[in-house]
Design goal:
This protein is globular. The longest helix is centred in the N-terminal third of the chain and has 13 residues. The chain has one domain. The chain has about 80 residues and is mainly α. The relative contact order is 0.23. The chain is built from 5 helices and no strands. This is HTH-like domain-containing protein. InterPro entries: HTH_73.
């Protein structure tokens, strides 16, 4: 996957999140796509740029990647 494709997915997850869960969905993106992001050395800033979200969300994706070691997705 490219940074642009991942940015589009991130934006969709953010826009489709229930009220109050937008940042949680950014974390979820990090959890869900951690293996792709880590294995392919993807630049998180490029994903954020492609998504159109605030640059500070890089930190939130990083938090999701770290959490991926400890959580299992239910959906």
């Amino acid at each position: 996957m490219t940074e642009n494709e991942l940015g589009k997915i991130l934006r969709e997850m953010y826009d489709n999140a229930p009220a109050g869960d937008k940042v949680a969905n950014v974390h979820l993106f990090g959890v869900k796509y951690a293996s792709i992001l880590l294995e392919n050395d993807i630049n998180l800033k490029e994903i954020i740029n492609a998504s159109g979200l605030k640059p500070s969300y890089v930190t939130e994706i990083s938090n999701g990647i770290k959490l991926s070691k400890y959580v299992i997705l239910k959906c």
